[in-house]
Each structure stands twice: as C-alpha cells, then as structure tokens.
Amino acid sequence: MIRIFLTGYMGAGKTTLGKALARELHVPFIDLDWHIEERQHKSVSELFAERGETGFRELERNLLHEVAQFEDVIISTGGGTPCFFDNMDYMNGQGLTVFLDAPVPVLFRRLRIAKHQRPLLRDKSDEELLDFIEQALAQRTPHYLKARYRFRADQLEDRWQISQSVTRLRSLLKI
Question: Which of 14, 16, 61, 66 could pair with 6 in a Cys bridge, judged by C-beta atoms 3.0 to 4.6 Å apart?
C-alpha cells in the first residue's frame, strides 16, 4: 500500500511532481486544495473569505483526515497544511511524508510567473513577493522539516527534469 503526502511551500512543485509520480506508480493523485474545492463547491479563496483562516484550517484538517484514509494514493497538501493543528504528525502516522524543498530564488521565479492565479500574490510587486516568500518560508520550514523525507525540488522545469526527479524520489522512498 502506498500513501505519500507531498508538503512544501506554494510553487515547490507538489502538484507537478505528485501528478508525475502518481502516473508512474499507476495510483490516483489528490491535490488537497482541489479536493476541498470539489467537496465544498467553492474556491479556497471563497472559503477563506467566508470562514476566515481558522474556519478554513478546520475544514482542511477534516478533509486531510478523509483523504488520508485512501490507499494507494499520492496526496499534495496545501502549503499551510503541515503548519496547523497536528497535521504533520498525523500525516507522518498515515504514510510517507516528503518536504519538497526549493530555494527562494526558484520559488520566486515560479510564483512570479503564476501570481495571477494566486489571490494572495496577485497584487504584489517583485520586491513584495520576494519578501513575502522569505518571511512565510521562514515560518513554515520548521513544520515542513518534520516530514520523514526532504527532497530538493528545484529541477522541475521540463519533462526530462520531472522524469529525473520522479526517479530520484522513488529511489529516496524505495518505491
């Protein structure tokens, strides 16, 4: 039975690597944020606005517990998921946890390109975006480091790099 939780900051490649790994292992891929949106019929942004962060994090925790019961699955968590409640300890008890670690310049480059898709980042200048990433990463990294495995996720720019990363991750996890 395979149950792998991918954690890390937004832009680290949880979805990109998770989908590729799931394809190679022939198991389903679940993005926790997408699962929440599908179950609630609302976007994460709308849920944050309606419930506030506390309400959203409670919902996220409940749905994390739901998807953690699935077998043979790769689960990509939200960037903040490991930082609340006992979520990281819970994931460690339910399967393999991997912190996808990407350096700040890589995160900045990826998020700068995709910031129009992320409401928290949409209106930030480059300098504000860089500061935001550095501060948030400093707060979240201690939680991410509780994952059983740490994987360098800065080589996900094309199909070849993604394929090589999947091979390296499989070797690390011995799967």
Answer: 14
Query: What are the angstrom distances between the C-alpha of 25 and each of 22, 99, 135, 170?
Result: 5, 19, 35, 9
pLDDT digits (tens, 9 = 90+) for 104-129: 999 999 999 988 877 778 899 999 99
Residue 50 belongs to domain spanning: 3-169
For residue 81, what is the domain's CATH number? Answer: 3.40.50.300
CA–CA gap between residue 44 and residue 49 (Å, rounded) = 9
Nearest Cα to Cα of residue 8 among 139, 88, 98, 104:
98
Look at residue 48 in the predicted model and tell me its pLDDT.
87
CB–CB of 112/129 below 8 Å?
yes
Query: What pTM, to 2 d.p., does this model score?
Result: 0.96
174 falls within a domain = no
